[in-house]
Amino acid sequence: MTAVQRPLARGVVARYAIGSIGTGGFATLPGLVLVYYLTDTLGVTALIAGLVVTAAKVWDVVIDPWIGARSDRALARTGTRRTWMLVGAIALPVGFALTFAVPAGIGPGASGIWVFVAFLATATAFSLFQVPYIALPAELTPDYDERTRLLTWRVVVLTIAILLFGAGGPELRRAFDDEYVGYLVMAVVAGLVIGIGMFVSAGTAKRADVPPPAPPAASKLSGGYAEGFRALRRSAPFRTLLGAFVLQGLATGLMLAGAQFVATWVLDSEAAVTLLFIALIAPAVLLAPVWQRVAGRIGKERGFRIASLVFAAAALSMVVLVWAPGPWVYLPVAVAGAAYAGMQSLPMAMLPDVISHDARQTGIDRAGSFGGVWTAGETAGMALGATLLTIVLALTGYIESAGAESVTQSPAAIAGIAVAFSVVPAVLVLVSVVVLRAYPLRRADVNADAAASPEWSTP
């Protein structure tokens, strides 16, 4: 029997999936509340708030390829990617709490600088964990369907984490009359939960008895970029998959950042953001295993396209919010949530196939470099989604407020929020489906890669 036929142990699948508590928490809570915190508590203008959040994310894009290359070097030197994952797990809770610890009474300019510096440190800690975490599936199993199983349960935990942080975070914030105290308590609790999930998942980083061949050195930042660009240049499957995923990250980042604005100004209820998240995530949790079965029958790439088309249709239908806002919106949100499970699990299950295909072609494991570029692209998409929202807000005349200050938004600003939550994400996802048509790898290609690799053969 070959290792290709052996299923992953349940404990490995569970511990790996738990790492998505960190992924879901960090991707969701800042994306949901940080722009709103800057504009409606600290009094920072919408465009400046978008720049603050985007600048910190741009730093991630800069540093992720270097972290990926260094992770490959660490694997070659020590046989494991675990060390950097642990450093990120320990540092992130501190930075997360500091991001929302701006003292009351300081001006919008100083507040913006405080949030920028603290969020920059938090994003760096997250990348130290996330980049090697993304690289692990290619090294845990070579099997086409086992990778789908591994990433399916990761997405189940991811969607639960999104619900936990997306619904629970704002509720915890609202439990305090003082907005500043509410945000700080929310950040401390969320940071600790994220850090614990990341710490547990770091244990899945295997320690090889014989370290793999060392990739080219990348001690300088430019070296990490060079290796990342080489990966993009030589791997057509990676370019295609990453392009589609970044476009979808842009769409979901836009919707995530816009959810609180939709709840407050379109649905006329700040608390409605909790219901929006429940409507989105409950179907995603239930449907993730269904997408695993779909992929088993028709292939990951076809399942990914179907999920994307369903999501785009659901998002586009919500443009009716411009003329008829109401609780009916929870139905298309639920449909989008069902599709979102496939949009997350299937491309993530395709990534290790791409990495293994490249390893077979080159003879060197560069999973960290692939993971670094992937994480940079995902981060850029999510960050630019929030930036795109702030551009729409500025163009449609959105009015910022500080603390308890009361403002009234114009019909144009409210319509802009609705369009940014529906039409724009739908168009972005439809473009991603066009890009995905060029993806070349199929089940037979992945199984051929596994069969040709001596690493996965039993003596």
Automatic annotation (TrEMBL):
Domain of life, source organism: Bacteria
Keywords assigned: Membrane, Transmembrane, Transmembrane helix
Record-annotated membrane-spanning stretches: 12-38, 44-63, 84-106, 112-138, 150-168, 180-200, 240-265, 271-291, 303-323, 329-351, 372-399, 411-436
One protein family per Pfam: MFS_2
Keyword Transmembrane: yes
Protein name: MFS transporter
